[in-house]
C-alpha cells in the first residue's frame, strides 16, 4: 500500500547516505521523524477503517447466524405443533439467512485478515520509528560533537600563525628599543648633573664610612696592645 512506501524507502536506504546530502543533519533527522510520524498517523487511520469494516461484517454474520438458529428452533416447534407449512416456511427463511451468514462470514474473514496484516505493518512502523528515534539521538550527539570540533579547529587554525609570531617579534624589538632609550636617557641625565648635585653628593654619608673608621681605630688599638 502507498502509505507504507516511505517506511520501505527509509529502511532500504542507509540513513548515513541521506545525511551525506543534508546541509544540516540535525534538521534533516527531525524532518525524517516528522515524516514517519505522519505516515504512522495515516496508517493508523487506515487500520482503524479496516477494523471498522471487520467489526461490521462480524456483526452481520453473527446476526445472520442468530436468525439461522432461531428459524431452526421455530421450524421444529411448528413441526411439533403439526404445522408443516409453517415449519417449511421457517426452514426456507433459515436457508436465506444461512446464505447471508456464509457471505458475511467470508467477508469477515477477508476483512480480519486485512486488518491483522495492517496491524502488523503498523506495529513494524512504530518499532522502526522507535529505533530510528533512538538512532537520531546518537547521530545528533555525534553531529554536535563534530560541529564543536570543527569550530575549535577553525579557531585553532589562526592561533600561532606566522603573522602572530612576527607581531610578537616586532613587539619584543619595540620593548628592547624602549629599554635602550630609557637607559640612554638615564646615562644622559647622569652626565648632565649640576655642580650643586655633585657637591651635595659629597656631603651624603650612608654610615658605611663611619663604621669603616671605627674598625680602623679598633685595629690600630689592637696593634699597639701587642
Automatic annotation (TrEMBL):
PANTHER family: MEMBRANE-ASSOCIATED PROTEIN VIPP1, CHLOROPLASTIC, PHAGE SHOCK PROTEIN A. This is PspA/IM30 family protein. It comes from Paenibacillus validus. Keywords: Coiled coil. The keyword Cell wall biogenesis/degradation does not apply. InterPro entries: PspA_VIPP1. Residues 54-135 form a coiled coil. Belongs to the PspA/Vipp/IM30 family. Residues 183-202 are annotated as: Disordered. Pfam families: PspA_IM30 (PF04012). The keyword NADP does not apply. Residues 186-202 have a biased composition (Basic and acidic residues).
Amino acid at each position: 500500500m502507498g502509505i507504507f512506501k516511505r517506511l520501505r524507502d527509509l529502511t532500504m536506504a542507509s540513513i548515513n547516505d541521506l545525511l551525506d546530502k543534508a546541509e544540516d543533519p540535525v534538521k534533516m533527522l527531525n524532518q525524517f521523524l516528522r515524516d514517519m510520524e505522519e505516515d504512522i498517523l495515516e496508517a493508523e487511520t487506515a487500520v482503524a477503517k479496516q477494523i471498522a469494516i471487520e467489526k461490521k461484517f462480524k456483526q452481520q454474520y453473527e446476526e445472520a447466524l442468530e436468525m439461522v438458529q432461531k428459524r431452526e428452533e421455530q421450524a421444529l416447534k411448528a413441526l411439533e405443533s403439526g404445522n408443516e407449512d409453517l415449519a417449511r416456511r421457517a426452514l426456507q427463511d433459515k436457508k436465506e439467512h444461512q446464505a447471508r451468514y456464509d457471505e458475511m462470514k467470508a467477508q469477515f474473514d477477508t476483512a480480519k485478515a486485512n486488518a491483522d496484516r495492517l496491524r502488523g505493518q503498523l506495529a513494524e512502523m512504530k518499532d522502526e520509528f522507535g529505533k530510528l528515534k533512538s538512532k537520531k539521538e546518537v547521530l545528533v550527539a555525534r553531529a554536535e560533537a563534530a560541529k564543536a570540533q570543527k569550530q575549535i579547529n577553525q579557531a585553532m587554525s589562526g592561533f600561532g600563525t606566522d603573522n602572530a609570531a612576527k607581531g610578537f617579534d616586532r613587539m619584543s624589538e619595540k620593548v628592547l628599543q624602549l629599554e635602550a632609550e630609557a637607559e640612554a636617557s638615564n646615562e644622559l641625565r647622569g652626565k648632565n648633573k649640576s655642580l650643586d648635585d655633585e657637591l651635595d653628593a659629597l656631603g651624603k654619608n650612608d654610615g658605611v664610612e663611619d663604621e669603616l673608621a671605627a674598625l680602623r681605630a679598633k685595629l690600630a688599638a689592637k696593634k699597639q696592645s701587642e
